[in-house]
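#struct-help
A.M.: can someone run this one for me? Single chain, 207 residues.
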Amino acid sequence: SLVIIFFTTFASSMVSASPVPFLIKNLAGTKEAFAVFIGVLVSVSSIAMITANFAGGFLTDRVGRKRTIGLGSGILVTSLFAYAIAPDVFWVIAVYFVQMFAISLFQPAFTALVADMSRLSSRGKAFGRFNLFWIGSAIPAPFVGGFLAYNLGLHFPFFVAALMSLIGLVACFGLAGISSEATSTNRASTEVEHERILMPFGRVILI
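D.P.: on it. Structure tokens below:
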């Protein structure tokens, strides 16, 4: 289930990424306005990711991995459907902010789950294999999004991406068997190491 969620989440985002600039171009009116709005889009995505990573980390610890992933998946599905009814460029930028926020919201939960499910001695390999799923989805998905937009209309890729992310949302129910907290064995073996690694950063923040 975790693999399905991870793959469909990033694949759906890549499918929707191709037509977004062209949607803005159609709504912007002029080339100058288009250039400005693309710059705003990039800045907005950075703000969304920074904000969501802090919120996602807090929610992961407070309400658990599964609920955080489910929340992010639900927001992502809604945002992808919202692209299809965009009346103006400001709507597109707002929806893009929500989309980037949703994706970044459950990244801390994904990371925590991979850590929970792997041994300390092989955790690096586990993260490496797991990251292949989103890297792999970034290869065909943008082409698919562009192909669909060219042949079936600019809004069609958003419906496809929304359905893909909806599959990921349904797969969240399959996470029931995965503990929302780290096992006591993993916790005991990693607490000292985490404190050792994070202590210098804590001192910098305090300073």
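A.M.: thanks! Residues 72 and 181 are 18 Å apart (CA to CA).
D.P.: also worth noting: The radius of gyration is 19 Å.
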